[in-house]
Amino acid sequence: MQSQGRLIDVFSAAGRHALETRLGVFVAARRWFRSKTRAVAATSLVCAVPLPGEVKEMVLAVVRVGFVEGADEQYVLPLTWVHGDAADHLTRARPDLVVGAVTVDGEERPRWLIDALGDRHALEGLYGLFARSAVVTAGGAEVAFRAVGGGFERFADDAVEPRPIQTEQSNTSVAFGTSCVVKVLRKLEEGTPPDVEMGEMLTRAGFAHAPRLLAVAEVAWPGAAVATIAMASAFVPNVGDAWSFVLATLARRTVSADGADDAVRFASTLATRVAELHGILAAPSQDARFSPEPIERPEREAIAQALVRSLDDVLSRLDHHARRLPPDARERLGALRRRAPAVRDIAARFVAADGACVKTRVHGDLHLGQVLVSGDDLVLIDFEGEPARPLVERKSKRSPLVDVAGMVRSLHYASVAAARQPARDVPIDGLRRAAEAWHVAARRAFLDEYFRASAGRSVLPAAPGARDTLLYFYLLEKCVYELYYELDNRPDWVPIPVLGLQRILEEIDAG
What is the pTM of this model? Predict the structure, then answer.
């Protein structure tokens, strides 16, 4: 790749092929690339918009990835370059940021094209664009930074030191001091993403237990609809996510056996916050995107049939892959098949639940990793839904019990993960008993408090029997989803949803 001295020169027509080749290799190797199992056919540059920065040149690139089969995908890639000793250090310390070398006219040493979200000066420039509500146009494309919910508050320079958040996988987030968190949405999809729609709605509603949305950045070019590339939300002081908090709590409780009822306190607070979220989403609205709707019988039939088919399919896959499953998972397969009729019974009751099924917007991917521990309270984050699902599905309305089932299953996952962590001077059986006792108490407390806090402001049926039918249906649906995921990604974790599914079916059989 070559340049006459400006970063934008790298994107000229003369060097386009070499650049696109390098971008294709770079994008396909990133953890936020969504289609790792598909064969890439070609990579092309859709647009490149120079973004003004006080210190660092930066270009917003949109890269299209074509596949041998299936639809193309587009990815957002802010780029900058480094040179000199800083470049030498970065290529050794952070090779994951490096796209490739650039030969610059009149310079002996090459510069290195890198992901700008790993460069402090570029990130400071990005913050400034949000703060100024900047609008940038180039080559027919436009990038606009739009204030939301009262606007983006500019903090003092010493308060906005950028700090990339390392735990994220499907997107890239950066915290700017105690000012805000900017999330760059790596996969570009036309239209408003659910995270932005939900953020705007919850900010207007004054929901204090989700980050306040401050601004969004959007891109458009001729022939394409406006698409969101980034969003800025108010920073929430926190000590980490609830998954890490639970594992640490269980480790302390197992070792010290202090007897504190931490499970009930934590799960009750969590349930209250989820119920408050669902109460806001259940309120009547003139906005069709958020108004509650009945789940009519034809839709219930389709959902139920999909669950039954998916269970049959995933059980067949478990049989096929039995040899590579852990022994405890293999031992439970027979029991699962014997109890499979209970799934059809719940599915039939779900279909027959006329008048009891109402759908609203939901979080869509609620688990302990989507909850921040802030002081003595909890904050819900990341309203984008399950990243693997198409945009239209992530924005669709569903029963609030989809979120409840997701959190119940996450509590189970956390208890099993905690029991797998070795603890000094504690037998493994003791670890398992303590973690299981925590899970039983937390699950009961979460469900009891959720239904108590939801009373009178929820779309759920008042009758416990109808409510339990819906809960068990969505718990089964979640377990089946987990089985697919673990088979494809973490076979050694398959015993967790297998055990979860077995217990749910036993509870259904017990009435």
Answer: 0.89
